[in-house]
Amino acid sequence: MYVKHDPLLSPEQEAIVTSCIGAGLVVHRELGPGFKEVIYQRAYALELDSRSICFEAEKPIEVVYRSWRIPGQRIDLIVEGVVLVEVKAVPKLKPLHEAQVRSYLKTTGIRVGLLMNFNSPVLKAGLKRIAM
Question: Concatenated DSSP letters for 104-123?
Fold first, then answer.
């Protein structure tokens, strides 16, 4: 379920979350459901760029297992170093998708993530905000 405000985030961080959601709504309104995930990722990145919002796409991270660092994982987008965005284009979000975002948040130390399923008739129905 989408939560509007997290008291642990600063007003500046909340503004970034709001901007991320706004960009997602524009992409969804323009494209609608039905495309592959990579199309939404690229369109979302273009929308962020058009708004002069800094982001890193396909950011490689290392997963720590005991004392070892394991490379090979990538995160769809990290916006302004504050918000992790995971883009999906699936029939329905599953608990596994939310667990994936939680794992990414834990690994990166980022406090808030947005799980966006662009294959929803309305993006609000496919949007989950996940905070750690």
Answer: HHHHH--SEEEEEETTSSSG
